[in-house]
Write a structure and sequence with these properties.
The chain has 261 residues and is mainly beta. Helix content is 8%, strand content 69%. It has a single domain, classed as Porin (Beta Barrel), CATH 2.40.160. An eleven-stranded mixed beta barrel has the order 1-2-3-4-6-7-8-9-10-11-12. The protein starts with a helix and ends with a strand.
């Protein structure tokens, strides 16, 4: 028993030492109003297969500056009435309003699995999206992953109004990071390890409007709570220089137009 208590005391002491080496992050809270405008084209060359291409413009800083401009291409296949699989690619061009210049582009790949079921006039769907974003600039992997990996889980309910062209919906989505770098006291002395946590909570409401057989509109509002960590090390010594938890509360208004051939 004495040996057991001694081992436990050593473990607790070691844990406290590690905890003292890594201070709690400083917390920064911000609010932002954002907007998105998107246009897309959808084509079904064969039964159950649909191809899509789209352009999207995003605004941030209370709608005062351009956030990004991205181009997407994707494909979706309906395996059966209740299940879809899909993949899409996005070329992301971010704009840095501080230096007033475009950042190096990023490449994003999504793999989607979606199940859905009809309950009366309500369609319930659950989409699991594995998302990886590859940076083209050079980064310290202890501060940011070169290829960020995120699992996005979205639950959505859409209601079909009888004799109406409107279809309102609500959704809730979680973003879970899978390869965030673990914070260390000195990255030149520590082994690299990863951490995972929920980085974003999203709740949204919207309504789809069927203009005609080929033309669709989608109006939506999202509320995002985005939690990210800004890790900064001293380049020459490797010591932890800064550690921030950045909480951003985003109000996102968007409109999307789709032409279905």
């Amino acid at each position: 028993m004495k040996r057991l208590f001694a081992i436990l005391a050593f473990v607790c002491l070691a844990t406290n030492v590690v905890a003292q080496d890594i201070p709690a992050p400083a917390v920064v809270n911000t609010n932002d109003f954002r907007a998105r405008v998107e246009g897309a084209f959808e084509w079904s060359p064969v039964k159950n297969l649909s191809l899509e291409a789209g352009l999207q413009l995003r605004l941030n800083n209370d709608l005062g500056s351009v956030d990004r401009f991205q181009t997407t291409f994707g494909a979706e296949y309906e395996v059966c009435k209740y299940f879809n699989v899909g993949v899409d690619y996005a070329l992301i061009n971010n704009y840095d309003h501080i230096v007033r210049d475009w950042e190096r582009p990023r490449h994003r790949l999504n793999v989607n699995l979606e199940g859905r079921v009809q309950v009366g006039r309500v369609e319930l769907s659950l989409r699991e999206r594995l998302q990886t974003t590859f940076r083209t600039d050079s980064v310290n992997r202890f501060e940011k992953p070169q290829s960020e990996l995120i699992l996005r889980s979205r639950l959505m309910a859409e209601y079909s109004i009888r004799h109406s062209k409107w279809s309102p919906y609500v959704l809730f989505e979680l973003h879970n990071t899978l390869n965030a770098p673990q914070v260390v006291a000195n990255y030149k002395e520590a082994e690299f390890s990863t951490d995972n946590y929920v980085t974003r909570y999203r709740a949204g409401v919207g309504a789809k409007f069927r203009i005609s057989r080929n033309h669709r509109l989608d109006f939506y509002y999202y509320f995002d709570y985005d939690r990210g960590y800004n890790i900064d090390y001293k380049g020459n010594k490797g010591d932890l220089k800064g550690y921030l938890q950045e909480n951003e509360f985003r109000h996102i208004f968007g409109i999307s137009y789709k032409f279905k051939l």
